[in-house]
């Protein structure tokens, strides 16, 4: 799904002079049950954000996360940018509808401020989680966690 949606996003990456580095492989043992279109929307919103707010000439890296004891039995796909990062006090509000860290910048970038609220909503429907980590002047990592399908 990540690879499918990334084709549609490459023109944005080119306009931003950014590198979109998709590093995900299909793994037989790591499957999830999900709505394909909705998960496509999740990855589209997160990769577009990483490109929009990651600064020009940056790199957006999409990869499978190492296991994390906070999310047992789940698989994580992380979208990492090397942009300016997000000040700590904003992190817990990012998924609120219409919430923007920098109103002026977001106005220039366009959009409505709904992208992350939609991500949160879709992940909730999949019993998933969104984990956000950010370091100022280093960048942000948004990780999508989804329950692994139990293969018998
Ligand atoms: P829309 O997604 O509707 O086009 P938007 O991108 O402004 O608009 P969200 O995707 O919900 O809305 O993001 C909310 C805000 O979070 C953004 O306006 C931006 O301030 C901040 N943000 C999101 N992703 C990043 C990121 N990767 N780096 C820095 N800031 C980010
Ligand atoms: Mg957005």
Automatic annotation (TrEMBL):
Cell location: Cell membrane
Domain Histidine kinase: 1-150
This protein's name: histidine kinase
Source organism (scientific name): Pontivivens marinum
Residues of the full protein shown: 267 to 418 of 418
